[in-house]
Design brief:
Cadherin; repeat; transmembrane; 5-stranded mixed beta sheet; 4-stranded mixed beta sheet; cleavage on pair of basic residues
Length: about 725
């Protein structure tokens, strides 16, 4: 209520209100000055309001007093329950924790005024979750209430927490939240095998490194606390096997470390130990965290392929060994109980394998071709062995054959040397160091020896000093050399190797005598420097050389002209057709040279009498018209051919090697007489020429000719 001292109660004063909430939350009676709240107030929304009031004259509208400010404070009541702003909660605590182990702290918030009364005083309690957990009523800290809670028994717990204001008294407001508590695992359980003996059956053909079985120990723990390590206890048969842990299933995987053989041993027994990798010292008193089981493995007999005695064979053979020479053998056996014979053969892959053969029964390898180390120094191929009883069971082994070198090449000087000696050289002076090379594959320790040839040993010019390290030195044997007396020396050096058989070669070294200074430096090795005077200038030398060249050119031209003139005279004499002199220095063309003589005269003596025309010269280019008399009906074929022969003989343009003229005459005095049907005593009427049609296209004309005569024969009745 507002009241001004100037207000006499007669209605001359008017009260006004302004500020927070004026007109919306609060209103004032203009006459009495009473202030009223026109809606519900909430302290949690706005705890106070600042307002201004003033008394105004009703008539003049002027303020009667200065404006005054006042605060309206909202009084709190318990109208808000506690709330868990972070709920619901999730917490965890290790299993087997002692009583009072800290789990989690919860907190509830009350919006009421904590400075007024007990409206914001909160007390915590557990509505659900006892007797496993407890909570501090003031702080809200949750702790374990029972000892040795086991995760393997129960892992998840749900606890219901209540927060109540007014100090927990009756009439207070309450709020609740849920806390989900999980017991985390600790390694409080050792691994245990579900049975004491495990039986496994393994084929003897199992590959080394392959898994042959699995065993498992059970650990109720979780995560890394359940990780198990398996080990084979040293004992009978344990050295043939190995065991590892499958990280996904925690099973023990038994693997084969060495090959099994049913014929050698049929069963193995050993023990396997399972233990935890991560131990907790708090539970050592419970006992050892490991367990042991027995594993019995029975080996199953299998039909296995043959087994070679070696994993790889290496052999050696000398090159040029005769074909068929045995150079080695491979051996494979069938180790099964019912032993079977073994057959061998080469695994052909390329043409190189054909250089060798193998005996299918004995396994001996022999050469099939001559070997050359310089071509191929090593051969690598595979041999396959199969069982006779089961050819599908095969095994393979690699064979390496090294071709040994036979000393077939002599050593030679490795590089051509340009050796020179000074005119002022002293005896025993080394003028060149030489080395040798051998095309053969030199074995370790092979040495070359150097010496002079027998014919050069007696000459007092040079000698060879063998250093016995595959090198030698060329040394002088006399005091001084003269270029004027001899410019070049040829020194035969004999080089021998140390292999068997010993090979040697004679290498000729050229040694040039040069002019040197007193220190041995070569000044000149030119030939012209020996004979020319010392004072001759370079220009004079060039002029002399030019004169020599000009003289040589004149001589060459003169000789060439002489030869050309002689050749022209010889050609003129040969081209004169009137000269009948025969040059016997010109070879003929043999049988095919038909221009030199009439080859038909050698085959048919009658031609000599009929043909008088020379055939050793080219006939004139005169062509006579050939007169061919008409062929009458029923003319003898021999007369027909003779007419053609005579016609060709008198024709100078006809070739001299007419095939008809050569083969038409069969000769006289034949013991078998004539084989031709032309001279047959039978009459033409009895002759049948139908067979000419069967002789092919070449005899088609004759077949048509005689067939036509026969068809027009007036003596035959059609």
């Amino acid at each position: 209520k507002l009241h001004s001292d100037l207000d006499k109660g007669v209605g001359t004063v008017k009260y006004t209100l302004s500020g927070d909430g004026a007109g919306t939350v609060f209103t004032i009676d203009e006459t009495t000055g009473d202030i009223h709240a026109i809606r519900s107030l909430d302290r949690e929304e706005k705890p106070f309001y600042t307002l201004r009031a003033q008394a105004v004259d009703v008539d003049t509208k002027k303020p009667l007093e200065p404006e005054s400010e006042f605060i309206i404070k909202v009084q709190d009541i318990n109208d808000n329950e506690p709330k868990f702003l972070d709920g619901p909660y999730v917490a965890s605590v290790p299993e087997m924790s002692p009583v009072g182990a800290y789990v989690l702290q919860v907190k509830a918030t009350d919006a009421d005024d904590p400075t007024y009364g007990n409206s914001a005083r909160v007390v915590y309690s557990i509505l659900q979750g006892q007797p496993y957990f407890s909570i501090d009523p003031k702080t809200g800290v949750i702790r374990t209430a029972l000892p040795n809670m086991d995760r393997e028994v129960k892992e998840q717990y749900q606890v219901l927490i209540q927060a109540k204001d007014m100090g927990g008294q009756l009439g207070g407001l309450a709020g609740t939240t849920t806390v989900n508590i999980t017991l985390t695992d600790v390694n409080d359980n050792p691994p245990r095998f579900p049975k004491s003996i495990f039986h496994l059956k393994v084929p003897e053909s199992s590959q080394v490194g392959s898994a042959i079985g699995r065993i498992r120990a059970v650990d109720p723990d979780f995560g890394k606390n359940a990780e198990i390590e398996y080990n084979i206890v040293p004992g009978d048969g344990g050295n043939l096997f190995d065991i590892t842990t499958d990280e996904n299933t925690q099973e023990g995987v038994i693997r084969l470390k060495k090959p099994l053989d049913f014929e050698t041993k049929k069963a193995y027994t050993f023990k396997v130990e399972a233990s935890n990798l991560h131990l907790d010292h708090r539970f050592h008193s419970v006992g050892p965290f490991k367990d042991t089981a027995t594993v019995k493995i029975n080996v199953l007999d299998m039909d296995e392929p043959p087994v070679f005695s070696k994993p790889m064979y290496t052999m050696e053979v000398y090159e040029d060994t005769p074909v068929g020479t045995i150079i080695g053998a491979v051996t494979a056996q069938d180790l099964d109980a019912g032993s079977s014979s073994v057959r061998y053969f080469i695994d052909w892959k390329n043409d190189v394998d054909s250089y060798f053969t193998i005996d299918a029964t004995e396994g001996t390898i022999a050469t099939n071709e001559l070997l050359d180390r310089e071509s191929t120094a090593q051969y690598n191929f595979s041999i396959i062995a199969s069982k006779v009883s089961n050819p599908l069971l095969t095994s393979k082994v690699n064979v390496i054959i090294n071709v040994l070198d036979v000393n077939e090449f002599p050593p030679e000087i490795s590089v051509p040397y340009e050796t020179s000696v000074c005119e002022n050289a002293k005896p025993g002076q080394v003028i060149q160091t030489v080395t040798a090379a051998d095309k053969d594959l030199s074995p370790a320790g092979q040495r070359f020896s150097f010496r002079l040839s027998a014919e050069a040993s007696n000459k007092p010019n040079f000698t060879v000093h063998d250093y016995r390290n595959n090198t030698a030195g060329i040394e002088t044997r006399r005091n001084g050399y003269s270029r004027r007396q001899q410019e070049l020396y040829f020194l035969p050096v004999v080089i021998e190797d140390s292999s068997y058989p010993v090979q040697s070669s004679t290498n000729t070294m050229t040694i040039r005598v040069c002019r040197c200074d007193s220190d041995g430096t070569i000044l000149s090795c030119n030939v012209e420097a020996i004979f020319l005077p010392v004072g001759l200038s370079t220009g004079a030398l060039i002029a002399i050389l030019l004169c020599i060249v000009i003289l040589l050119v004149i001589v060459v031209l003169y000789v060439a002209l002489r030869r050309q003139k002689k050749k022209d005279t010889l050609m003129t004499s040969k081209e004169d057709i009137r000269d009948n002199v025969i040059h016997y220095d010109d070879e003929g063309g043999g049988e095919e040279d038909t221009q030199a003589f009439d080859i038909g005269a050698l085959r048919n003596p009658k031609v000599i009498e009929d043909n008088k025309i020379r055939r050793d010269i080219k006939p004139d280019s005169l062509r006579f018209p050939r007169q061919r008399p008409p062929v009458e009906d029923n003319t003898d074929i021999r007369d027909f051919i003779n007419q053609r022969l005579q016609e060709n003989d008198v024709d100078p343009a006809a070739p001299p090697y007419d095939s008809l003229a050569t083969y038409a005459y069969e000769g006289n005095g034949s013991v078998a007489e004539s084989l031709s049907s032309i001279d047959s005593l039978t009459t033409e009427a009895d002759q049948d020429y139908d067979y000419l049609s069967d002789w092919g296209p070449r005899f088609k004309i004759l077949a048509d000719m005689f067939g036509e005569e026969e068809s027009y024969n007036p003596d035959k009745v059609t």
